[in-house]
Task: inverse folding
C-alpha cells in the first residue's frame, strides 16, 4: 500500500487510527505490528513471510549478541551473521537478476534470471534491521527482549517502504514508552498534509513533464531547452516525491508517538556538492557514514585509504538505489565530485561568489539526475548530449510546455527554498491559527481530487 | 499549540477521512458512469486464490476508486485547478477556447504502411472498384485553433493517400461548426460536406444545402472529449438530423441477427452517448435501403468507423443500398460479402485518427 492512495487515506488510515487509539497502552505495539503486516501484505501478501523471517532472525541475533557479549569474538560472529542474512535477503531479491545477467556475459558462465518481483521497501527495512544488531553490539541501544515490540520496529508502516531509514537506537526508547498527546497528533497530521500535497500535487504533476521530454528524446524532437526542462522536472519530481513521503512518514510517526529524524533539509539550497549530500536523504548518508565509512577507517588512514573509502561508500550508495549500471555510475559520479571538492575545489569555492556556487552545485546535481533517471546508458548519453548542445536550441512544443508548467515550476521553486517557511513564521500567531486548517483542507481536498482523477479512466468509443 | 486547538485540528482531519469513508459505505454502488461512459467496478468477491496472486487487493482499490462519493465532482475539480495552473492539455485533449480537440498521437509508421497495403490487396482482389477515404481529424482541419506549440501528429502526408479529398472541402468550411466542440466526430454539417466530397470522387451528383431541412435533435450533447478531458464547463453541443428518414428501410445486425431499425434511434438522445442516435451506434453490419430509388442507383459498401454513422443517411439518398461494415465486429471476408450482395462500389472510410491505430484492416485480405 502507498500513502498517496485512496484506500490508504480513506480506509486504512482511519481504521488503523481508531483501532490503535482504542486499544489499551500495553497492546499498542501489537496493534502496530498487526496493522503494519496488513499494510505490507496488501501489495504482495506472500511477502509477509519475509517480514516474519526478518523479525525472527534479527530478534534472535540481538539476543545472541547480548548473551555472548563477554566473548567479543562470538558476539562479532553473530553481528556478522545478521548482517550477512540481511545482505543476502537484499541481494537475492534486488540484485540477483542484475548479477546473473552481467556474470553470464563472461565466457563459460550462465546463471538463470529469476524475474522475482521486488518486495516493496526491502532496501529500507533491511538497512533498518541491520542497524539493530550493530547498535546492540556497540551498546548504542539496549537489546529488545519483547518480540512484539521488535516486530513493531521492523514492520512499522510509516517508514517501512520509503524511509526515512530509522535506526533502532532512534526509536528504542519510544518503543518501550512513548507519549501520545493530542498536540503530537495535531502536529503529525499537519506534517502529513504537507507531505501529501508535496507528493500528489507537486511531484506527480511535474513528473508528467519529465515523461514528455523523455518521449521527445526517443522521438528525436528533444531540444537543448527541452532537455534541461526535463532534468529540472525530474529533479523536482524526485525531491518532492521523496521528501513528501518522508514528511508523511515523520507525521504519521508523530501521531503514534514516535520521533523520527529529519530526512531532507532544503537540499537544493546547497552551495556545494558536499553540502548537498549533508542535506539530501540524510538518513541514508548517515547510515552509510556510521555503518560503512567509519568502520572502514573513514578519513583517518591517509589520502589513499580515504579515497578508497569514499569510492566504496559511493559505489554502495549508487548501487543501493537500484540494480543497474546507471545507479553505480551515478554514485561514482558523485564520488568524483566529492573528491574533487575535498582536495581541489575547496580553496577555489571559498573565493567563488555565492550565486556561482549555487549554480555549480545545481548543475552537478541535475546532470546527475539525468544519469539516475535513465537506466539505458546509451539513451542517457544521447539525452545529456542533447542538453549540452547536441540538438536545436528550442522547439515550438517547448514553448507550449513552458506555458503549461510555468505556475507549477514557480510553486516548485518556492517550495524548494526556505522562503515559504520563513514567511509562515513571520505571520502573526492568529493568522497562522486561521490559515492552518484552511491549508490542510485545501491539501486534503485537492489531493483527493487528484487521486480520484488518477483512477479516471473514461471508456471512449474513441476508436469508434 | 493549545490543547483545544490541537483537538480541533485532530478532529478536523479524522472527520474528513472518516466522514468520506462513512459516506462511501452508505452510498449505494453505481453500475455505470454516464460521464465516463463505462461500467464501474463492483465489490470484488474474496478468495484465497485471488488474494495470493494480488488481484483481490487490486480489485478492491479499483472498486473503492470507482465508487468514490462525488466522483465526477472530484475529477471536475482537478480539471479546473489544472486549468488555473495554465494547463491546456487534459488527458490527451487540448482545450482551445470554447472547443476541445483531440491530440493525435504519433503512430507506428509500419502499422500505417501495413494498413495501406491491406487496402491495396482488397483493391486487387475485389471485382468492383475500391476507393479509400481518409477523414482528417479536427486537430488537422482546426490546426489554427490549437494552443501555440501544441503537438499533434501531422496528418497531411497520409491524407495524400486518400482517393476522396475530404481535406480540401473541410478546410474551406473550417470557419463553420464542422466538428463538435465536445466530441471527436464531425457534425452533421461536416458529414454533409464529407458526403459531397465522396459523391464527387465517385462521379455522382453532389447535394445542395437547400436539399435538406436540418432538425435539431439535441441541444445537450456532451461527447467523448467532454468525458476524456474532465472539462465539464463548456457549453454542450447541438446535434442535428438533416437527411429525411422517409423511404429508407434500415436493417441492423446489432444483436447478431437481422432486425428492422430506425435511421435515427432517438432513444439515445436522452442518454449520454447521443452520437449513437445515428443508426443506433456500434454494430457489425447495417444495410440502408432506399425504396424510392431504382436498383440502378447502385449498391455501396462502406468499410468504416463511426464517422460513417452520420454520413450514411446522406449517402442513402443517392444509392439504392448502403451497406455499412465494421471490421471490429464483422470478422468475415469483405470481398466475399461484396460479391454475394451485388455490391457495385466499395469505399474504405476511416478518420485518420482511427486509421493509424486500427488493427483490424488485415481482415480485408481474406479472399
Result:
Amino acid at each position: 500500500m502507498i500513502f498517496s492512495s485512496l484506500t490508504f487515506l480513506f480506509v486504512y488510515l482511519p481504521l488503523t487510527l481508531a483501532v490503535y487509539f482504542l486499544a489499551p497502552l500495553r497492546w499498542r505495539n501489537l496493534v502496530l505490528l498487526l496493522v503494519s503486516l496488513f499494510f505490507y501484505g496488501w501489495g504482495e501478501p506472500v511477502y509477509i513471510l519475509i517480514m516474519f523471517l526478518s523479525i525472527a532472525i534479527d530478534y534472535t541475533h540481538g539476543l545472541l549478541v547480548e548473551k555472548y557479549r563477554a566473548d567479543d569474538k562470538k558476539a562479532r560472529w553473530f553481528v556478522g551473521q545478521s548482517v550477512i542474512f540481511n545482505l543476502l535477503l537484499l541481494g537475492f531479491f534486488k540484485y540477483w537478476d542484475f548479477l546473473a545477467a552481467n556474470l553470464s556475459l563472461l565466457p563459460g558462465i550462465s546463471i538463470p534470471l529469476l524475474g522475482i518481483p521486488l518486495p516493496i521497501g526491502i532496501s529500507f527495512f533491511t538497512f533498518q534491521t541491520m542497524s539493530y544488531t550493530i547498535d546492540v553490539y556497540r551498546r548504542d541501544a539496549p537489546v529488545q527482549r519483547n518480540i512484539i515490540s521488535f516486530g513493531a520496529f521492523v514492520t512499522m508502516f510509516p517508514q517501512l517502504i520509503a524511509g526515512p531509514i530509522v535506526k533502532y537506537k532512534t526509536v528504542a526508547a519510544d518503543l518501550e514508552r512513548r507519549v501520545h498527546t493530542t498536540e503530537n497528533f495535531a502536529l503529525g497530521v499537519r506534517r502529513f498534509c504537507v507531505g501529501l500535497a508535496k507528493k500528489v500535487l507537486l511531484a506527480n504533476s511535474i513528473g508528467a513533464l519529465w515523461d514528455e521530454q523523455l518521449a521527445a528524446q526517443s522521438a528525436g524532437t528533444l531540444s537543448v531547452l527541452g532537455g534541461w526542462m526535463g532534468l529540472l522536472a525530474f529533479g523536482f519530481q524526485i525531491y518532492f516525491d521523496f521528501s513528501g513521503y518522508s514528511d508523511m512518514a515523520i507525521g504519521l510517526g508523530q501521531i503514534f508517538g514516535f520521533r523520527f529524524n529529519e530526512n531532507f533539509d532544503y537540499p537544493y539550497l546547497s552551495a556545494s556538492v558536499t553540502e548537498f549530500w549533508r542535506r539530501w536523504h540524510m538518513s541514508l548518508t548517515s547510515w552509510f557514514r556510521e555503518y560503512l565509512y567509519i568502520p572502514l577507517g573513514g578519513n583517518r588512514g591517509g589520502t589513499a585509504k580515504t579515497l578508497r573509502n569514499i569510492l566504496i561508500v559511493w559505489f554502495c550508495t549508487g548501487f543501493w538505489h537500484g540494480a543497474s549500471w546507471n545507479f553505480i555510475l551515478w554514485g561514482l559520479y558523485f564520488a568524483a565530485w566529492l573528491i574533487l571538492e575535498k582536495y581541489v575545489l575547496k580553496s577555489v569555492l571559498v573565493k567563488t561568489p555565492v550565486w556561482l556556487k549555487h549554480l555549480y552545485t545545481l548543475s552537478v546535481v541535475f546532470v546527475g539526475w539525468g544519469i539516475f533517471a535513465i537506466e539505458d546508458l546509451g539513451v542517457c548519453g544521447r539525452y545529456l548530449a542533447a542538453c549540452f548542445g547536441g540538438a536545436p536550441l528550442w522547439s515550438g512544443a517547448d514553448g507550449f510546455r513552458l506555458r503549461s508548467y510555468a505556475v507549477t515550476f514557480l510553486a516548485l521553486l518556492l517550495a524548494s527554498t526556505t522562503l515559504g517557511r520563513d514567511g509562515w513564521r513571520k505571520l502573526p500567531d492568529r493568522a497562522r491559527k486561521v490559515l492552518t486548517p484552511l491549508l490542510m483542507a485545501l491539501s486534503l481536498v485537492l489531493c483527493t481530487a487528484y487521486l480520484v482523477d488518477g483512477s479516471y479512466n473514461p471508456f471512449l468509443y474513441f476508436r469508434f | 499549540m493549545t490543547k483545544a486547538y490541537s483537538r480541533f485540528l485532530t478532529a478536523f482531519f479524522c472527520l474528513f477521512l472518516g466522514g468520506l469513508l462513512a459516506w462511501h459505505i452508505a452510498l449505494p454502488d453505481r453500475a455505470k458512469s454516464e460521464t465516463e461512459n463505462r461500467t464501474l467496478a463492483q465489490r470484488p468477491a474474496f478468495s484465497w486464490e485471488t488474494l495470493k496472486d494480488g488481484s483481490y487487493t487490486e480489485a478492491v482499490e479499483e472498486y473503492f476508486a470507482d465508487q468514490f462519493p462525488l466522483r465526477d465532482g472530484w475529477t471536475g475539480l482537478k480539471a479546473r485547478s489544472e486549468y488555473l495552473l495554465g494547463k491546456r492539455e487534459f488527458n490527451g485533449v487540448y482545450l482551445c477556447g470554447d472547443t476541445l480537440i483531440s491530440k493525435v498521437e504519433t503512430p507506428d509508421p509500419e502499422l500505417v504502411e501495413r494498413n495501406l497495403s491491406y487496402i491495396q490487396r482488397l483493391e486487387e482482389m475485389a471485382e468492383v472498384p475500391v476507393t479509400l477515404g481518409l477523414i482528417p481529424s479536427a486537430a488537422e482541419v482546426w490546426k489554427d485553433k490549437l494552443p501555440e506549440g501544441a503537438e499533434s501528429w501531422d496528418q497531411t502526408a497520409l491524407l495524400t493517400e486518400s482517393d476522396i479529398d475530404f481535406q480540401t472541402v473541410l478546410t474551406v468550411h473550417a470557419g463553420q461548426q464542422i466538428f463538435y466542440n465536445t466530441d471527436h466526430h464531425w457534425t452533421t454539417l461536416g458529414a454533409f460536406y464529407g458526403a459531397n466530397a465522396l459523391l464527387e470522387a465517385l462521379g455522382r451528383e453532389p447535394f445542395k444545402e437547400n436539399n435538406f431541412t436540418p432538425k435539431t435533435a439535441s441541444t445537450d450533447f456532451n461527447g467523448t472529449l467532454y468525458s476524456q478531458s474532465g472539462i465539464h464547463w463548456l457549453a454542450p453541443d447541438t446535434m442535428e438530423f438533416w437527411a429525411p428518414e422517409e423511404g429508407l428501410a434500415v436493417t441492423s445486425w446489432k444483436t447478431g441477427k437481422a432486425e428492422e431499425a430506425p435511421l435515427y434511434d432517438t432513444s439515445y438522445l436522452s442518454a449520454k452517448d447521443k452520437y449513437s442516435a445515428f443508426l443506433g451506434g456500434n454494430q457489425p453490419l447495417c444495410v440502408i435501403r432506399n425504396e424510392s430509388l431504382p436498383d440502378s442507383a447502385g449498391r455501396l459498401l462502406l468499410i468504416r468507423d463511426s464517422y460513417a454513422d452520420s454520413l450514411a443517411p446522406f449517402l442513402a439518398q443517392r444509392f439504392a443500398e448502403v451497406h455499412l461494415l465494421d471490421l471490429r465486429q464483422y470478422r468475415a471476408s469483405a470481398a466475399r460479402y461484396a460479391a454475394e450482395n451485388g455490391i457495385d462500389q466499395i469505399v474504405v472510410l476511416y478518420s485518420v485518427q482511427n486509421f493509424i491505430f486500427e488493427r483490424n484492416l488485415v481482415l480485408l485480405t481474406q479472399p
User: Anything to note?
Assistant: Chain B touches chain A through 69 residues (CB under 8 Å). Residues 99-365 of chain B form one domain. Residues 265 and 280 of chain B are 5 Å apart (CA to CA). Chain B has two domains: 3-71, 99-365.
